[in-house]
Structures are given as structure tokens and as C-alpha cells.
Amino acid sequence: DIQMTQSPSPLSASVGDRLTITCQASQDISDNLSWIRQIPGRAPELLIYDVSDLETGVPSRFSGGGSGTHFTLTISGLQPEDSATYYCQQYESVPFTFGPGTKVHI
Amino acid sequence: EVHLVESGGGLVPPGQSLRLSCAASGFTFDDFAMFWVRQRPGKGLEWVAGISWNSDTFGYADSVKGRFTISRDNAKNSLFLQMNSLRPDDAALYYCAKSRVGAFFDVSGKLSDWGQGTLVTVSS
Fold first, then answer.
1. Which helix (H) or strand (E) holds B101?
2. Which residue of A33, A46, A57, A85 is most buried, as measured by CB atoms within 10 A?
3. What is the separation of C-alpha B66 from the centre of its chain, rounded to a whole number of angstroms?
4. Is some CB atom of chain B closer than 8 A to the CB atom of A98?
């Protein structure tokens, strides 16, 4: 199985900050990576897929990058509603594993 | 608008069975692969199982293989998870999720829509 790791966690930041979360895969996953946000008490929601494509309706302050085994999620201009846990997920091969999550506190 | 509504969770003793359901609406159900993802209390997301549009192909996490069975009824726009030989570490909130695009689960793993989850508790 492909193992996903994320760093760091938890993270504290302020409104307006630029924040970068990293995700690493245990093997090459090409561009088969998404970022998912989970606000406390709510269902997860897709933010970014295929490394850098923004899901419909997601604010442009979210961006993704990377390739192969190393990936990043950047939030530019943090907003209070960005307090959440962020997960990366690989869908290169079954089982489609998630990272452990990065909790962000604004 | 896509709606996914899970049901069937509850409290069961270890070793017993439970069947979860997910009612789907707002999209053409048999155009998409479907998945189950779980979240243990206070923990992260864990991919559980996936199934292709026509039920011909499916896959499981190692932790549930041989105990859980994913299935679907396209005529009723429904997804199911039969859970047998339940263990205390199967206790979790179980989410139903839809592939963003694609009908075959093994190449359609990006999850664009999620239900609110149904809670499974395994305890004597």
C-alpha cells in the first residue's frame, strides 16, 4: 500500500497569512493526488484534485503543487473559516490512502 | 445538486453484522464509481471500499477485506456496505462518497461529494 505522510501538525496561523502544508507519498503517484478539507463537525469536501486543479466553487486562495512523491497545498490570505483539518489522498493505486491530516488553527 | 444520505448505523456487539445504505440523488448514479470512507472518533479519514458503476470491479482496504462487502443497486440509486464480524476498531463514522468523474473505481478515486455519515458503534 502507498503510505502518505503530512507535515507539520498542528499549525497555528493568523488571518491573512500564507500557509503551506506538505504531503509525501511513499512511492511515485504521478498526479493522482487530491486535497480534502474537513471543518469540525462537517463532512469532508474536495478542494483540489489532480495535484493542482481547483474544485468548482473553491476559492482561488487555495492552490496545489508538486509531482511524483512530494506535494503542497498553499492557502494565500487565510480566512477564519479555513480553520479545519486538511488531508491529502492518493488515487494512484488501491487502496486509495489518505494522509494523517494537518490541523490548522486560525 | 448531489445528495448522499447514509443510514443503517447503530450499536452492535463484537462479532455481529450491520448493513449500511447510501441513498443517492441529483446525478446519474450509474455513471459513477462509488466509495465508502470511515473516520474513527477523533481520528483521520480511512478509505474502506470502492465499486465500479456496473459492480464488476471493487476493492477493499486490507483492514476490512474478507469481512466487508460493497454493493450497489443502480435501479434504486443506492450503495451498500455489508459489514460482518465487526470488531471494536470498526467503530467509526462511515461516509458514502462519489467519484468526481469516472465509472471504474480503480481509476476514479478522487471523491467530489460526500454524505454526512452514519455512526457505527461496536461494543458489548
1. none
2. A33
3. 15
4. yes
Q: Model confidence over A16-37: pLDDT tens digits?
A: 999 999 999 999 999 999 999 9
Distance (Å) from the alpha carbon of B83 to chain A's nearest alpha carbon? 18
Cα Rg, chain B, nearest whole Å: 13
Beta strand A53-54 with A4-7 is unpaired
Distance (Å) from the alpha carbon of A96 to chain B's nearest alpha carbon: 6
User: Residue B54: its pLDDT value, please?
Assistant: 93
Does B111 reach chain A within 8 Å, measured CB to CB? yes
Judge whether B5 is closer than 8 Å to chain A, CB to CB: no
Chain B: residue whose CA lies nearest to A86? B44
CA–CA separation, B64 and A6 (whole Å): 24
Separation between Cα atoms, residue A77 and residue B95, nearest integer Å: 31
Name the grid cell of A5: 505522510
Nearest to B59 among A43, A50, A95 (CB): A95
Q: Is the pLDDT of residue B108 over 90?
A: no
What letter represents residue A92's amino acid? E
Scan for cell 471504474, then name that residue: B104
